[in-house]
Write a structure and sequence with these properties.
400 residues, alpha+beta, FAD/NAD(P)-binding domain, eight-stranded mixed sheet, 12 helices, 30% strand, binds 8-demethyl-8-dimethylamino-flavin-adenine-dinucleotide, binds P-hydroxybenzoic acid
Length: 400
């Protein structure tokens, strides 16, 4: 097999990249280790920055998002039983965010790719990227055998490319093709995770609520007008099954408690899982003709809602750079790929870290640190400058 751009991974990064390249008349092949149903139902991000919405729309993938996505003009910060709303458009010159789940973004992009894009091969696992320093990098992959077609035996093959883009997430293989002596990794883990639930109940508030409480952080989000998505800070390594449904609701009620008559509505919990929290950056994001994009190169804790949006920024940067090279013959933008992406990545790392340490309670937190958190929250609530800083970062910095 041969293609211009070999894309490893059909998460949001790989799928959007295939779409952007298709629109630019550049062919690609996407290899995805999981099956279609798995990719379409993996519960993850929920918030799209304005820039992400604009990119999806311009790529022709915004039709259902425009119909079903929920535009949000603010979030609520909750602490000390008080509520403070951050008004995004007022603070940022009109910017907002959109609640539209990552599962839906992936479904829309997969449908488009299968209808009019290049090959998208599910159950096809990349094993290794070879020859990144050469003009023709290759991806070795294993394709699950289909009964009656090629026996049930797995089939190994090679995809020859002009460029390989590793969009294979944090646990992928493409990062490993960059020699260790050329690599720097920056990492931090946190001594807590998020217990996330989906519940069949209308969201108890019409905007997201980020709550800081002495018992730990809680987040109220949503998937639709009738489905709530909620998170609780839990100790690292917690088993989701160790929490009974009524215990989850009681704990959420405690952490969201206000001095006024706000109430949390309960409903049947249809899914629960625990996510660990990590900050991680791999530098550089490029080696020869291998480029890393999305979670393959960087991870942020979810408190800033930035992971998916960073993945979008990376692939937009790559698609622009390759188009520029094709039109002008200059590799200037491709050469600058890593530096361009990393500037935005580190701003998101900084913001995600700030939001995480602002709102979570570390197991060894001292009374001094508790007071500092409250002072930081009071500062945001009391200073337009501090509040603007949060609103600008949350709604996202412009691409490139
Ligand atoms: P993905 O989505 O992990 O996709 C990688 C794909 O590569 C496949 N793969 C391979 N395929 C072939 N061969 C191999 N060897 C392969 N190895 C792996 C995998 O099967 C998979 O399909 O990475 P991508 O595309 O970079 O996208 C990143 C986002 O998924 C991620 O950053 C966000 O989900 C993070 N995130 C959030 N981001 C936001 O922008 N806003 C949010 O509100 C938000 N909330 C969240 C989140 C992540 C969460 N979890 C579960 C980590 C909330 C949570 C709870
Ligand atoms: C979500 O809806 O899953 C979500 C929203 C905001 C975050 C993280 C996750 O910061």
């Amino acid at each position: 097999m041969r293609t211009t751009v070999g894309i490893i991974g059909a998460g949001p990064a790989g799928l959007l990249l295939a779409r952007l390249l298709h629109n630019a008349g550049i062919d690609s092949v996407v290899l995805e280790s999981r099956d279609r149903a798995y990719v379409e139902h993996r519960q993850r991000a929920g918030i799209l920055e304005q820039g992400t919405v604009d990119v999806l729309r311009a790529a022709g993938a915004g039709e259902r998002m425009d119909r079903e996505g929920l535009r949000h003009d603010g979030i609520e910060l909750r602490y000390d039983r008080k509520r403070h709303r951050v008004d995004f458009p007022a603070l940022t010159g009109g910017r907002s965010v959109t609640v539209y789940a990552q599962t839906e973004v992936c479904k829309d992009l997969i449908a488009l790719q299968l209808k009019e894009g290049g090959p998208l091969l599910f159950e096809t696992e990349a094993l290794v990227v070879e020859g990144a320093e050469t003009d023709s990098p290759r991806v070795r992959f294993r394709h699950k055998g289909v009964e009656g077609v090629d026996g049930v035996e797995d089939v190994e093959d090679v995809l020859e490319c002009d460029y390989v883009v590793g969009c294979d997430g944090f646990w992928g293989v493409s990062r490993m093709a960059i020699p260790a002596e050329l690599t720097r990794v920056f990492e931090r883990t946190y001594p807590f995770g998020w217990l996330g639930i989906l519940a069949d109940v209308a969201p108890s508030h019409d905007e997201l609520v980020y709550a800081r409480h002495d018992r730990g952080f809680a987040l109220l989000s949503m998937r639709s007008p009738s489905v709530s998505r909620l998170y609780l800070q839990v100790p690292e390594g917690t088993d989701a099954e160790a929490w009974r449904d009524d215990e989850i609701w009681t704990e959420l009620e405690r952490r969201f408690e206000t001095a006024d008559d706000w109430r949390l509505e309960r409903g049947p919990i249809t899914q629960k899982s625990v996510t660990p929290m990590r900050s991680y950056v791999h530098e550089p994001m490029r080696h020869g003709r291998l480029f890393l994009a999305g979670d393959a190169a960087h991870i942020v804790p979810p408190t800033g809602a930035k992971g998916l949006n960073l993945a979008v920024g990376d692939v937009v940067t790559f698609a622009r750079a390759l188009t520029y090279e094709r039109e002008t013959g200059s590799s200037e933008l491709l050469d600058g790929y890593s530096a361009t992406c990393l500037r935005r990545v580190w701003q998101a790392e900084r913001f995600s870290y700030d939001m995480t340490t602002l709102l979570h309670r570390a197991p060894d937190a001292t009374p001094f640190e508790d007071r500092l958190q409250l002072a930081r929250l009071e500062r945001i609530a009391g200073s337009r400058a501090a509040e603007t800083d949060l609103a600008e970062a949350y709604t996202g910095f412009p691409f490139g």
